[in-house]
């Protein structure tokens, strides 16, 4: 028999801009989308840690995070 003791993810998420609106407006909505994503994780009480938030030369954003998976415990995974 197997039992999951810890389950965590490390993700790199690439947030891209909409192409059908002006560049400045697209960047504004992109930043809002990133903040909304982080706020949703907090609202759902998903344990997480943002490792990096990198704005690319083209204005898109890379978000590197570690987060809890399906409410399983994470142990010390989020601490290091």
CA-to-CA gap between the ends?
30 Å
Query: Pairing-aware structural class of the strands and helices?
Result: alpha+beta
Order of SSEs, N→C? EHEE
Mean pLDDT equals 91
- Poorly predicted spans: none
Strand order within the widest beta sheet: 1-3-2
Give a quick account of the main beta sheet: strands, pairing sense, barrel closure: 3 strands, antiparallel
User: Beta-sheet strand percentage?
Assistant: 25-35%
What gross morphology would you assign? elongated
Q: Bin the helical content.
A: 25-40%
Q: Give the helix tally.
A: 1
Backbone CA Rg:
15 Å
Strand tally, please? 3
Description:
This protein is α+β, with helices and mostly antiparallel strands. It has one helix at 23-43; strands at residues 8-15, 48-55, 61-68. A three-stranded antiparallel β-sheet has the order 1-3-2, with helices on one face. The longest helix is centred in the middle third of the chain and has 21 residues, at 23-43. It is elongated and about 55 Å long. The model has no long low-confidence stretch (mean pLDDT 91).
